[in-house]
Prior knowledge:
By secondary structure, the chain is of the alpha+beta class. The chain folds into three domains: 31-146, Immunoglobulin-like (Sandwich), CATH 2.60.40; 153-252, Immunoglobulins (Immunoglobulin-like); 257-376, Sandwich (Immunoglobulin-like). The protein is built from two helices and 26 strands. The protein has helices at 2-28, 375-409; strands at 36-39, 42-46, 51-59, 65-73, 79-81, 85-88, 94-101, 110-126, 129-146, 153-159, 168-176, 182-192, 198-203, 207-209, 214-221, 229-239, 242-252, 257-264, 272-281, 287-297, 303-308, 312-314, 319-327, 334-344, 347-357, 362-373. Strands 20, 21, 22, 24, 25 and 26 form a six-stranded antiparallel sheet that branches. It has a five-stranded mixed sheet with strand order 2-9-8-4-6. Helix 1 packs antiparallel against helix 2. 20% of the residues are buried.
Amino acid sequence: MKNNNKKFQKQNQNGLIKIWLYVVVSILLLQSTFGIGIVPGSLDVDYGEDRAETYYVYNNEKKDMDVILAAQGELAEYIEFSSTNLHLSKDEETKAFQVIIKNPERLAPGTHETLIIAMETTTEDKAAGTTLSTRQAVISKLNINVPYEDKFAHAELLITPAKYGEPINFVVTIKNKGTKLIEKANARIEIYGPTNELLTSLLSDSKSIKAGELRELVARYDDNVLNEGRYLAKTFINYDGNEIVLEKTFSVGDLMISLENIIVKEFKLGDVAKFEIVLKSQWNEKIPDIFADMIIKNENGRTMTKFTTASIDMEPEEKGTLISYWDTKDTPKGRYDTKVILHFLGRNVEKNVVLDVNQDSIGIGFSPTGQVIGLETVKTSKDALIILVVVGSLILNLVILFIFLRRKKS
Length: 410
């Protein structure tokens, strides 16, 4: 019973380490610069005889650096290194090492992933002992592909970004992961609208695919112009009587709401002006919670007032009106630069407007330019990235501590 408990605890520990490592991989991939680098960042190899692959550690900061190499993952026990400890001087930009892959005799068909980890380390003496710590680490993914018996294909659907009025290319990448030739492979692509109605069906070219080979099947849509909006592509891939079904959404054009007009009726200077902001949806789906900010500035460019409208929902390709109010008490006649910012689905559309305020009317002049921005989203993403980096560093040190302790015990 005790042996079973120890085995269970060990499995849990190994699983936890693997989960942490995957989190760290995701975080590390977000980073743009490191003092240490590893090449290749990802490598696919076919299952077979034992082999050696050459990797390189990069000294990006051009400093004296000690590096420890380790493997973690499903096949870590079958990975060896020409040396697990590397030293790079400040004059060495890169250093090569060998990863020796000793394939087990039997391995289930499919892709088996192992992580190759390069860790920059420092050693600190503390009283009676020595402490090993890490500054940063980089990870490379090693995928070992084991072929399936007979015929087996893996497919993905790629759709080129589509601008309104331009052709759309549907590209099916299909790899033969089996041991036999695929004599004929083709694809049928069905395009569905926002209410799930079938709009059209396309056929790709046909190709044969050798074992281990990757080929592309292409279908092109250019018969009729699709309205701007979101669509669904259902793809049925047939290879020698076998079928793969893929689904993917895609968009035509940019998600956009245009500001058509601003109307002010029955106005007298000193009273409350009612603004009717007329919008037009250019999308083929309902857009909820649309609202606007109006920022009015004086002749010195300082903000006089800012007000926000109530929100509305807009059905596909319909017009809608936002209402806002401006109390013009103590407001002199003149021209006022105004910015109208539409908010919808995390996007912002800006429009510059000039208000010509008279005694009994407000004239509206539109700037010819407008732009789509996402400042709030960008700020949030940067904050999230900082949090991820900090959390990732903590998790990485925990993972390395686990690996070090396991090695020490063994």
